[in-house]
Amino acid sequence: MIFLIPLLALAALAAVPFFVGAYPLGLGIGILGYGVLATAWALFSGPTRYISLATVAFFGIGAYTVAVLADLMPYPLVLLCAALIGLVVALLVGLATLRLAGIYFVIFTFGLAELARQLVTYYEVNVTRTLGRYVFLPIGPEHIYWQLLGLLAVTLALAFWISRAKIGLALRVIGDDPVVASHLGIGITRTKLALFSLSAVVMTLAGAIQAPRWTYIEPSIVFNPTVSFLTVIMALLGGPNRLFGPLLGAVPLFLLFEWLSANFPNHYSIILGLLFIAIVFLLPNGVLAAWDKLTARFKNNEARA
Amino acid sequence: MTTLSRRTLLQAMGTGALATALASLPTFAQDRTAIRIGYAVSKTGANAGGAGISTIPNYLLWVDDVNKAGGLELSKLGVTLKLEVTEYDDRSSAEETVRAIERLATQDNVDFILPSWGTGSNLAAGPTFDRFGFPQLAGTAVTDMAPQLVQRWKNSFWFLGGGHDYANALVDLLVKQRDAGAINNKVAIASVADGFGIDLSKAATPAFQAAGFELVYDKTYPLGTSDFAPIINEVSGLGVDTFVAFSYPPDTFALTQQAVVANFSPKIFYLGVGTAFPIYPNVAGPNHNGVMGVGGIDPDSEAIAAYFERHTALVGQAPDSWASAVTYASLEILGQAITRVGDLDKSAVAAEIASGEFDTILGKVKLVDNQLRALWTVGQWQDGKFVGLAHTEGKAAREPVVPKPAWVPAS
Amino acid sequence: MSLLTLSNVTKRFGGLTAVNDLSFTLTAGETVGLLGPNGSGKTTALNMISGYLPVTSGSIALDGTTISTLGPERIAHRGVARTFQLVRALPSLTVGENVLAALAFRKDPLWGSKAEAKIENLLADVGLAGRQQEQASNLTYIDLKRMELARALATEPKLLLLDEWLAGLNPTELRAGIDLITRLRQSGITILLVEHVMDAVRALCTRCIVMNTGSRLADGPTADVLADKSVIRAYLGDDHA
Amino acid sequence: MLFSAILTGLVLGGTYALIAMGLTLQYGVARIMNLAYGDLIIAGSFGAMLLFTAAGLNPLIALFIIVPLGFALSWLVYALMLQPLARRSPNRDRLEGDSILATFGLLFVIQGVALVLFGANYQSYSFLAVPIDVLGTTIAANRLLAFALAVLFGVGLWLLLTRTRFGTVIRAVAANPGSAPLVGINVDHVARLAFALGGGLAAAGGVVVSMYLTFSATMGVIFTMKALIVVIMGGVGNLLGALAAGLILGVVETLVSSFIDPGLTLAATYLIFLAVLVVRPQGLFGKAAR
Amino acid sequence: MLELTNTALRYGKHLALHGVGISIAPAETVVVLGANGAGKSSLLKVLGGLVCPEPGAGLTFEGKAILGRPAHDFPELGIALVPEGRGIFGDLTVAENLQLGAHPPHARPHEKRQRDLVLDLFPRLAERQGQIARTMSGGEQQMVAIGRALMSCPKLLMLDEPSLGLAPIVTSELFTALGRISATGIAMLVVEQNVKASLAIAQRGYLMEAGRITGAGTADSLRADPAVQRAFLGAVA
Questions:
Q1: Alpha-carbon distance C99 to nearest alpha carbon in chain E (angstroms)
Q2: E235: pLDDT strictly greater than 50
Q3: Rounded Cα distance, B36 and B44, in Å
């Protein structure tokens, strides 16, 4: 019975492209795209509290894989390749970052994303002699929407499963106290690497799926560091330690960006900035925590009445 | 207090969603009081610098010009309507660009959409323009793919040519100078590792080689490079008379300053995007004279002179002398096509743009295969103007000054 | 037979020698007190046994195999469990999850309903029956200590390292704590106990090792060691002897 | 050739060190990861340009106006926005998260104001763009001046930190904020001053780079990231580390550009940075975590 | 001079202090004895302004109520704390640590005099002024911490387990120095496990167990009190 609700919700969301126009569908794609990224980000960073800015490295690798391979093999195989490449890169990155903590980890991951961008650029410029690549795939926005929806559902299911599985417990223990974790027999390296890789594979797929939407792929488009920053902000805003937290950060923020840029195109930055500051002050623990507090207060009032 | 604010915030978000939903209700042509023009341009982000010079001012200027003239006459509807603008910021992101166009097309129901700045964003927006049947007048995209893209997207129009146009014109010009004995056979090229730089260098390298030039330096540098001392130092020791940089604005300025400082003053000093910017003479000081670059204008054209004046009066600075006039001309073409069609039928307007001949600040213009083929390809700063030295179809506006004056050290 | 053997173990932090050439052996089933004034190197020794700190030189063996080259999780899998001087709860987890974390990652892991039953037993053993669902961060000090012990026991260790587990308890709690450890002893587990509460040491330990400034000062039956003049001097100062 | 490349690299590295100094102070003492740092640099650049073009003021003199303004602005930002966050945070992690979010907002505000005031265009003016011959290598006077100023500020800051009572207090707070109250140091107060001082240095960096770099309202984040990389590579809160890392990056960039391929300069920067962290996770001069 | 009344301190649900009250007279040396976890350090934290006790507590110093004032005001009032673990600035030199000790405004004019006093008290510090404090031995670090506290011209010096982790010979040196400090007329509050040495320099003492004061008296009476021995070595010591 309880499994029916998410399935129904999924079905309802899957039906959306049949009822809405191109713009709401575009919004949907944007929201799902960031929803996937933020949820995937929180898979690793939520329990461990490591703030990663490498999101766009994987996102861009996914997009580039599609751009390079789209003409060579069937689309599902392309996605599989993207996932594999993402996995390999994630394992390497994960191993390199094991000893880093705090701000060092943050900036390291940022440097990594930039390095990926520089190396791709250098390769394209010197080897292929083209910087931009074209992705002409017969994939319409509704297909992208469905794929992202599927990916989000899978990611959420994974997140849900992880929160209940041993590996999720291991990660929470590591996040709370790595010393205790190791003394309880938890392989910290293995666990962190596994989750980091899983999260990275999802990010890679998010980039791969969205690549056909832009037609034209170049490093400055798909390795845009803003993506990493927005992902972090959304997940932090929603609350990275809850299943739907990152999503609940991504949806309102995405709509907020859209609303602001539409209504205040010339003062967008200022208003957005002020709102951010306000949010930090007003919602210190994220949207979901604030919501919990609100409902808790409500329940208390009811109980008293 | 916090609860209140939190609620207000949520309400504000809700109101926004509602407003967008309401805006989606269709309005009827009969009720219309204006022609709705929409565009999403980079007001922030990496592309904001380019859009702020070549794109946004021209959109403002065109709307202002048309509205001052009373609007566009729609003979089939029997009205003359002014332009009304819906603008968004694409935040220099391809994703935002695509979605903003979807929004303009389906939510705001604008009549025409103007594209954003840059090659990448125009290519990214192509399928979306195509899907909704809007003519796409790409005034700031340089791509050799244009002939194929036109096949793919029937309503796309490409106004700024491809890398080959600029590279070949430059090589032709240099061949003449070499054959006249004005310069030696050695050329150095530095290109920015970005779409524009690579497109041009890809076209230029074989062209130079085919013309028998010796390429003693041909390297790229990453976007965002701020220090050009190593490149200039190396090139200055190679004995070249010709230095070519397919560069982006900040690099264009930095390369100039570095060359002046290093007293590397080749006979031909050619730079990429930004050379034609009105700010360039401020940056280079007296040394801007004789610098060549991509683009150019006809200094004898009264239409261009008037355009420069109107532009300066409205936005407070002169336009750039490459893509600005082309962008403005593309808008003139759009306006004239609308008037000729007499209503707001997008495909009819697109067909008219493709086939008609138009009177623009660039002179009489007729698109070939949806592309503007009449382009200024090489320009040079002469007497405070960035004059065209080579044109794909017409004659040069001025003869090149070779060698350029030696650098004057800044005081 | 000997369960744990420390041979010439030394630990240096920069210029500071925290443990200096320490050797001792624990026989299976023993409960041994590791005593000494604050800063004498007891906790550092414990940290090296549990693998939290690498040894600078010397070696540590468990059941005859060297463990001083292993990381803490491998040592835990070989049957060493510990508590910490300053209680280290996992604050964002519930009491039940704290114990589950130990069950789930031990050598023969328990998960699901089997684990649930085991958690109940373990918590009941330490006096936390029925409190699985409480958030660890809400526990009182003594209950945190109990939980930490349950967590350590959940790994079914051969060797249990207790680092001042009884410190800070009031007399009643202390009595209960001593009883608890007495019961553990009877189950056959080997215990190494760093402790300042001498009543407890007397009650629990058959043997004591006393450390001072990183070195072993005395090793022998509890009563003898606590009567040793050098030990009393180390604790109470010179003229007390 | 090699000598010339190294000299050029040192001059470039001086700029990197200069823009990183303020950040290392802000992060090291006030424990704020200030993502709006680069936007303050840009604000300083705009200020210098405005004074130069509108009032004809020499940027060197402009420093005396803009640096105090940067100091005051950062002081206010800390007092109004960051101090409440610092007070509310139970631990370092939390403050880090909050300060990332809040200064991310500030970044947008400053950038937005610059956009409204100056537009998105590239800005540049020419000051002291004259060649100077240094041991056979030609270097722009403005760059040399920037290097000299970087050295001046670096030495000045170093003297301030090591030779004055106030500097000792700042280092004490950076080293051990928990113990500072024991000697009567008001940590809030010192953190605010250090943050403001960092802001003043950022503004100074802005004035200096505006002499020879083209800048625009949206370029702040580039400076922030460059500064962060220098700071992290050097070891957080370590002035000497920032200087060393800045110079190393400058020299590496120039060497790669001169002898390998200019296309790999930025890749080399990031590679060096990442390699340093893989070998020394705490940065060149940083202390180990434990 | 200092009066603490009815103080309870809570960390989360854990009650570290219950109804604690102590007083210190000018120039008096008072020792607080007790086992680990008895609440001694918590008591010092309250007295140093580092933590805020539950409502109902009272703290006066020279007649002024000072509860709730920020910790960084205490040195200026004349209360100096040498915390457990010493709390020195490890990255700084010995001289800088001492200089920082004189940071409170009232102490600055006397910086030179106090420095001479400290260096006289701990001659070893005089040789090591340029050394980075972190690289010194435990005993020397303790000297730095005490010296730093003395630099603020305190009226009351509070020490949390000064002998912690020190070799017996160093401990005895340290207590000799503490005795000399006491002789200069500075009031001292010492929290210690080293019963003998601390009682030797104290006039009075308190015994703490499980967050409560369970005994008080003169140094002599405590020395003879079996409860004190029990608290440390168990029944039969």
A1: 21
A2: no
A3: 24
